[in-house]
Amino acid sequence: MSSSQGARGAQHVTSGALLRSHREYRAWFVGDTGAEVGGQLVSLAFALLAFAVTQDLVLAGIVGAAAAGARFVAMLPGGAVIDAYPKRRLLAVYAAVRIVLMLTLVVLILTGTASFWTLLAFGILDGLLKGLFGGLTNAILPFILKGEELRAGLIANETRDSVISVAASPAGGALFGLNPLAPFVADAVLTTSLLWSSKRMTSRVDAAREAGAPRPGFGERMTAGWRWLAGRGDLLAILAILTVSNLGNFLAISSVELGLMSRGVAPWMIGLVFSFFSVGMILGGILASSPAARRRTPRAIALTAFGVQAGAYVLMALSAQWWWIAGLLLVITIPVIAMNSALGAYQMQNTPAEFQGRVGTVFMFVIGLGPVLAAAGAGLLLAHVGWGPTILVAASLSLVALAITALSPHLSALGTSDSGREARQDGEEAEAAKEATERAGGEG
């Protein structure tokens, strides 16, 4: 990195300025946003379609479970695929196949041939597609953005996702109510943004494997991310704290949902409670973009987030009133985007280009176990020990994450801000260049 590049990286970069000034990131953002909106539109709509066709909650649940299972199974092979082939080409292939898949479903609905078996097949294919390519856009991002720009980009992405989650899924349900075809046609149209995006990114996003380098077997490539990650104590520690805290958060979320339903709270009120969760994420995204927040080190941000979570869960254990839970969910989620963007940027910046897809999908796979385990654990804990102790389990998991963050020697690098790391790297590179010049002069 040159000194001028380091100076730019050390400056505070806002998400808005990044979108205005960085043409390649803007193209990436448009494509990723279109795909995210489309995916959220059909998430609820497909569940509604499965029930409308089968008229059976069990069969509709089987369709949804098969889609989720296929996605989970395909995640790790997907990382190897992402790292093995040119990413722009993969992006175009993913978009084209998804468009064809959505239009096929539209034809099935139009012709009245949609059935349990056809929807099951569609769900499995769609799950495999999302599993294989779900980590693709994230794997592309560190080829486009570096340093402070990467952190600003991650803040923008997570804030955008929170806004989409508030509006897109209900909109998908409303569109399905107007016309069952509408959300799936909308997804096909929105997915074309990925095709557009793939044509407007440069070839640098494809660089991962040296030209002419031998390609190992697929099994070896699929496990290479795990093997490389095993030697990185700092990234393993980050994976551990994110996994533990995610398990605690989803345990609390599942417990809130089940607890409120069991007490007969109206569905609209439950929806209102979880809207506070989304509002907290959006507010946190806005605050994370401030210069004061960006000057804080990743370690300090993580300690704050886990401390807030633990304290809020202790308070939540004291009362199961919906308004009390709603307010605490808002507080809990405010530091989340700042933490995720800081830790995510560190992970991406410290992962070699040839491992971005595989390491990213390892993180997605392991952290993704949290919602699965939490959904099962919440019901069991609520039935056997009740509300307060169940939420205290979530608090204890946040405290475990806090202790690892505070005490792990592997996370010492997280005590340095992005600008500090870049300044140190610039100094090291300048010193190396000086030594090389002196050696060349001596040899001359």
Mean pLDDT: 86
Please write the string of helix (H) and strand (E) elements: HHHHHHHHHHHHHHHHHHH
Helix-and-strand structural type: mainly alpha
Q: Low-confidence parts lasting 5 or more residues at pLDDT below 50?
A: 1-10, 419-444
Please tally the helical runs, counting DSSP H or I stretches of 4 or more residues. 19
CATH superfamily of the largest domain, called what? MFS general substrate transporter like domains
Q: State the end-to-end distance.
A: 27 Å
Strand content: under 5%
Secondary structure: helix percent: over 70%
At the first level of CATH, the class of the largest domain is: Mainly Alpha
3D shape: globular
Largest sheet: none
In CATH terms, what is the architecture of the largest domain? Up-down Bundle
CATH topology of the largest domain: Growth Hormone, Chain: A
Q: In total, how many beta strands?
A: 0
What's the number of domains? 2
Radius of gyration equals 23 Å
Give the topology, please.
Elements: H1 3-10, H2 15-21, H3 23-54, H4 57-84, H5 87-111, H6 116-133, H7 136-144, H8 147-178, H9 182-199, H10 218-230, H11 233-262, H12 267-288, H13 291-295, H14 298-318, H15 322-333, H16 336-349, H17 356-384, H18 387-407, H19 418-443
Helix pairs in contact: 1-19, 2-3, 3-4, 3-8, 3-9, 4-6, 4-10, 4-17, 5-6, 5-9, 8-12, 8-16, 10-17, 11-17, 11-18, 12-15, 14-15, 14-16, 14-18
